[in-house]
Amino acid sequence: MGADGMVQRAYKYRFYPTPGQENLLRRTIGCCRLVYNKALAARTEAWTARRESVSYNQTSTMLTGWKKTEELAFLREVSSVALQQSLRHLQAAFSNFFDGTADYPRFKKKSRGGAATFVRSAFTWDGRTLRLAKMDKPLDIHWSRPLPDGAYPVNVTISLDSAGRWHVSILVEEHVTALPKAEGKVGVDMGVQSFATLSTGEKIDNPGLRKRNAKRLGKAQRDLARKRKGSNNHRRAMLKAARIQARIADRRKDFLHKLSTRIVRENQTVVIEDLAVKNMSRRCKPETDPANPGHYLSNGQTAKRALNRGITDAGWRMFRTMLEYKAAWYGRDIVVIDRWYPSSQICSTCGKNTGRKPLNVRAWTCPHCHTTHDRDVNAAKNILAAGLAVNVCGDQRKHHNN
């Protein structure tokens, strides 16, 4: 966020294109995907074969050459701005990879929909309607909420999801006013049975959206598996399964937005753990039974798979991201403590480390001070205490340096 409180914020809406607009948008998205994949293949081949690094400018030159070939002449039929932006997205993906914040870029698939980004030179906005390059009519946007007064889009991203829905994401700059100082400080312990437990003792239930829709989703996926790939029946079955998954994702995002906003509004300091969600939800290898070589222990494997599904269904990573950017907007503090901090082992009353406890132990009594603890509430209290200690030490170092 800028010093003057200006932030870039995206507003996402559904829109309903005419047949002509949909035809053009599908071709644009397809061309963006093609350019992205060809540039990714060229950069990968240059490095693996010759140890050469290919820059964004070099891929832009490649794009100019591709347009001049007879085979790829259709690239000239869509907005050149959108094609250039796909190359910029690839460059950003490589930058994140080299920074260690993301995996190596992957090829885009048609089955997952797609997107195309337009900057100001490729659209017109009159305060009420949005018209993209090469279109004679504005988009029919369902304005579920208004844009900020006087805001002019920085860029516009058109996306088609796997459920066949069209969305437009409008990025604008707006002034965000920090919230008044709050007295609250809270530690948050993430879980599966309870989505989050707060140091205040409050437990937020996990909506379990995938579990609640497992029967419908499982039937749709079994129907899809029986269809011949490439057939119309396969496409219809794939769309049906994708719509169920999209509904689950929408409800999860709505739940996370409401909860993160409430926590940020009520508390000046929020302390969370630095959870390695990717490692925690990684598929494990089947364990062999030592008494019967060649046989596998199915119970532990089944429990691990159930835990993995619970973690991925909860959306911990998305929740942390929401907390961080909303805290930055509204003048709150987010403190992240080390993932190896033994929050479940320490007694929050006397501070003694009582050792590791199996996950099925949900309540325990401290052998030193004889205080009975709820496992999750105790962990949340320890997370808050550790975070406040880190915050105080950081403030002291800052003042010392000054």
UniProtKB/TrEMBL annotation:
Segments of this protein annotated with the region Disordered: 214-235
Provide this UniProt record's keywords sorted from A to Z. Answer: DNA recombination, DNA-binding, Metal-binding, Transposition, Zinc
Which residues are in the Probable transposase IS891/IS1136/IS1341 domain?
Answer: 170-282
Q: Provide the Transposase putative helix-turn-helix domain boundaries.
A: 6-51
- What is a biological process (GO) this protein takes part in? DNA recombination
Q: Which Pfam families match?
A: Cas12f1-like_TNB, HTH_OrfB_IS605, OrfB_IS605
Tell me one GO molecular function of this protein.
metal ion binding
Q: Does the keyword DNA-binding apply?
A: yes
InterPro entries membership? Cas12f1-like_TNB, RNA-guided_DNA_endo/Transpos, Transposase, Transposase_put_HTH
Record's keyword annotation contains Zinc: yes
Residue ranges of every copy of the Cas12f1-like TNB domain listed in the record:
316-383
Which family is annotated?
In the C-terminal section; belongs to the transposase 35 family. In the N-terminal section; belongs to the transposase 2 family.
* Protein name per Swiss-Prot or TrEMBL: Transposase, IS605 OrfB family
What lineage, starting at the top, does this entry show?
Bacteria, Bacillati, Actinomycetota, Actinomycetes, Bifidobacteriales
